[in-house]
Design goal:
Strand order of the largest sheet: 3-2-1-4-5-6-9
Helix content: 40-55%
Largest sheet: 7 strands, parallel
Radius of gyration: 18 Å
Distance between the termini: 52 Å
Number of strands: 9
Structural class: alpha/beta
Oligomer: single chain
Length: 256
């Protein structure tokens, strides 16, 4: 018998925010299953690290909050890959600020990346995304839970959830499926760099998160990435418009 066919043999995958955390785990997963992958990120050092870890990876330094730069990067990536079969919009920033300390500048910064930037990244990919393809967005269970200090982040992610649902309805005529994966507490570098997070509170924040998870642990980036790959694969051919929670039971098992 010949080798088993991989789910993404010959597929072209574009990942925004693929240089660390969930995005990097997804890049590694797609590549391991036969895809040719391009990733974006803002940090040259982590882009170099993921490029060294994933043979044949295409890397582009780009800030998803800069719409013009995103469009130029998408055109470059599409030329390098010959178009896309899968788009994973994962880039984003975290923030914890109580309502009384939220400024217009902070609101614009967070929504400009987590909502506006993500929408226009997906939009820029549409001319290059083949019919029958898939788009996956990274959401958050924070968009549904009343977490103190989470106003701006939750608002942006809730808006992105609406974007994903409407894009799913609009793109069904092209047989392009659009879904969202919403992680719960996950062990990624973002836990160390949330805007408004006081220095030295990382361990306390991690303990608080674990206490809120019915499975009594943090999720791993690879666990979220496996859900992303599933939704992008032919195995999910009759699934569009959903928000898949990868959260250790936080949404369904914990009283709101």
């Amino acid at each position: 018998m010949g080798a088993a066919t991989k789910r993404f043999d010959g597929r072209k995958v574009m990942i925004f925010g693929g240089n660390s955390g969930i995005g990097r785990a997804a890049a590694e997963g797609f590549a391991a299953e036969g895809a040719e992958v391009a990733v974006t990120g803002r940090d040259e050092a982590t882009l170099a690290e993921v490029a060294a870890a994933v043979p044949g990876l295409h890397t582009f330094r780009s800030d998803i909050g800069d719409i013009a730069a995103t469009r130029a990067t998408v055109d470059q990536a599409a030329a390098a890959l010959g178009g896309f079969d899968v788009v994973f919009v994962n880039a984003g920033i975290g923030v914890f600020e109580p309502a009384e300390r939220i400024t217009e500048a902070l609101w614009d910064q967070v929504t400009g990346i987590n909502l506006k930037g993500c929408f226009f990244a997906a939009q820029a990919c549409l001319p290059h995304l083949r019919d029958g393809g898939a788009i996956v967005f990274t959401g958050s269970i924070g968009s549904l839970k009343g977490l103190p200090g989470n106003t701006v982040y939750a608002a942006a992610k809730a808006g992105l959830r609406a974007v994903a649902r409407i894009l799913a309805a609009e793109l069904v005529v092209r047989n392009i499926r659009v879904n969202m994966v919403s992680p719960g507490p996950t062990e990624t570098p973002i836990i160390r760099r949330n805007i408004g997070q006081a220095p030295g509170v990382e361990d306390m924040l991690r303990r608080q998160m674990i206490a809120a998870v019915p499975m009594h642990r943090m999720g791993e980036a690879e666990e979220v990435a496996r859900a992303v790959l599933f939704l992008a694969s032919p195995e999910a051919s009759f699934i569009t418009g959903i928000d898949l929670f990868v959260d250790g039971g936080c949404i369904e098992l914990v009283a709101q």
